[in-house]
Amino acid sequence: MPAPGENLRINSERLWDSLMQMAQVGPGIAGGNNRQTLTDADNEGRHLFADWCKAAGMTMGVDTMGNMFATRPGTDPGALPVYMGSHLDTQPTGGKYDGVLGVLGALEVVRTMNDLGIETRHPIVVTNWTNEEGTRFAPAMLASGVFAGMHTQDYAYSRTDAEGKAFGDELARIGWVGDEPVGTRKMHAMLELHIEQGPILEAEGKQVGVVTHGQGLWWLEITLTGRDAHTGSTPMAMRVNAGLGMARITERVHQIAMSHQPDAVGAVGHCNVYPNSRNVIPGKAVFTVDIRSPDQAKLDAMKAEVMRAAHAVARDLGLGCEIEDVGHFDPVTFDEGLVKTVRQAAEKLGYSHMDIVSGAGHDACWINRVAPTVMIMCPCVNGLSHNEAEEISSEWAAAGTDVLLHAVLEVAEVVS
């Protein structure tokens, strides 16, 4: 059958309505969402998604990491499926679109195919990956990492949240331990639609980002150990202040990232001091350094420099210092053929577009290790994400999903 013409578009109103309905699950306090992984809100969102998939005629499979796979059959039983999707979990103060657009955009692609009676040779699978955010259970992209063989399931199940609850126990508690062994599915390709989470597309006036590469990342959790003491009665020269050590290392992380410009970033995002009392000098500080670059050499150099700086600061202040790798992936190069397919889809549809490097980690970064993978991005207002004020337009959402539709139909091979 000839390739679908440029007039073929998704139902943008239906997509937007689905996004707004999902946003009612796990509402935040300022217009966004708090639907952290394996919470009751996550469970509710999963059931809503499963109901929609069933209504669209798909069958649901769930693996032992709770990854959800909704399948639309193809005409060739022996053809490997084409996957698309992202994640439904959010940050504690997350937006309505991060990850969710990729899942519900993929669902809308299937709904549009159903509306028009389009069949493909390859089956199509819509996926919700578990714990992409990594905010409750580090590291990020945990379940797709297990799927791709980067982590063991035992490691994933043993990860704990701030209250000491284990991932495996919480997955069982909400009832989403599937019967499929994780990682056994084979893929013809995977396409992930996502908001940019940065300001480039909006600033350049582009409707679609064709993602060619992804930044590599290290998350280094640093634990500094000093001595709790009274802030009023302990002389300055006799303090062993873990909070001061954290502050100095935070400054060094910024300096190190700046010294590797361009294409390098770094910051301390997650931090805790103990006992966290206003009149007690912190005897312990635990914080995570996040450094990223699409350049492997820069990424490796920054990691080494951060570790040296942390140990040097600790020695100067008489602190104990432990550093644990809690998240990592190398820079990613997405499949050239799929990148070309996405670019051609945007051109055919008349959408302005540009090549872009993903500044954030995504499930596609891990799946890229086991299958051909590509990402499509849409702009977000002021580049704001991981924030309840995160915003996109319905037109941007539709443009990205239209491109996803045409790219998936090309890869899955339309037969009628």
Look at the structure and give the mean pLDDT: 97
- Can you give the helix content as a percent range? 25-40%
Low-confidence stretches: none
Q: Termini, distance in Å?
A: 6 Å
E-strand count: 15
Protein model, in words:
This protein has 416 residues and is α/β, with parallel strands linked by helices. It is 35% helix and 22% strand. The chain has helices at residues 12-23, 40-55, 100-116, 142-147, 153-158, 167-173, 200-204, 242-259, 296-317, 336-349, 363-367, 394-412, and strands spanning 59-62, 68-72, 82-86, 124-128, 189-195, 208-214, 216-225, 229-230, 265-274, 280-281, 284-293, 320-329, 332-333, 353-358, 373-378. Strand 1 and strand 2 form a beta hairpin. It is globular. It comes from Pseudotabrizicola sediminis. Belongs to the peptidase M20 family.
Give keywords.
416 residues; alpha/beta; 9-stranded mixed beta sheet; globular; Amidase_Cbmase
Short description:
The chain has twelve helices and 15 strands.
How is the topology of this model organized?
Elements (H helix, E strand, L loop, with lengths): L11 H12 L16 H16 L3 E4 L5 E5 L9 E5 L13 H17 L7 E5 L13 H6 L5 H6 L8 H7 L15 E7 L4 H5 L3 E7 L1 E10 L3 E2 L11 H18 L5 E10 L5 E2 L2 E10 L2 H22 L2 E10 L2 E2 L2 H14 L3 E6 L4 H5 L5 E6 L15 H19 L4
Parallel strand pairs: 3-4, 3-5, 5-15, 6-14
Antiparallel strand pairs: 1-2, 2-4, 6-13, 6-15, 7-11, 7-12, 8-10, 9-11
